[in-house]
Amino acid sequence: MNATRILAIRHGETSWNVDGRIQGHLDIGLNDAGREQAHRLACSLVGHEPIDRIYSSDLSRVLDTARAVAELTGAPVTATADLRERCFGDLQGRTFAEIAAAAPEQAERWRRRDPEWTPPGPGGESLLSFRARIALSVQTLAARNIGGTIALFTHGGVLDVLYRIATGLGLQDARTWQLGNCAINRLLWTPDSGLALIGWADDQHLQQTAIDESSA
Predict the structure, then answer these.
(1) Which of the residues in the chain have pLDDT under 50?
(2) Domains of the chain, CATH where assigned
(3) What are the distances in angstroms from CA 32 to CA 13, 15, 18, 39, 141?
(4) Residue 98 designated active-site
(5) Which residue out of 13, 25, 36, 85 is catalytically annotated?
(6) Is 25 a catalytic residue?
């Protein structure tokens, strides 16, 4: 088949997810709940979802989630910074409430999903540049694995972008879909049509509701 099956998965829960704190490119590890989610995810995939190769963000909260799956499935893992969350520059480490109090104009542009707004500070990415990075990365990985199944372990913001690309929604359209920790999202990529949505937010393997923080 001239297509690549993609399982797109967000990392397990972190303490900063619980606090609503922006992680971005900061390397925050999994908490106990996140490690348990990763284990349940791995158990659910063994024997049910054959995976040829795993690609993971190189940040530990994602890479540790990916490695939990790799350990049980035997799929090789490749870490890449291309699958990292959007970089929020100087805003990383803060909650939205803290940003709104200190810099209300910045917070408002973020809230309105201004595509050209770039968070202040080193490495800050606009939605436009972030989308371009993710689109190129996923297209490259999918094209490299035509006919196979790959798992992409990544972040909430990345999954938000993938959903929009697959469904044709714009960057400023209101989000009505979930970005749960360790939920399984299924996509199909073909050279002619690009990404298509197959299934989203499958979390039956999790016995408790995962925190849904798009700030990841």
Answers:
(1) 210-216
(2) 4-202 (3.40.50.1240)
(3) 8, 9, 12, 11, 31
(4) no
(5) 85
(6) no
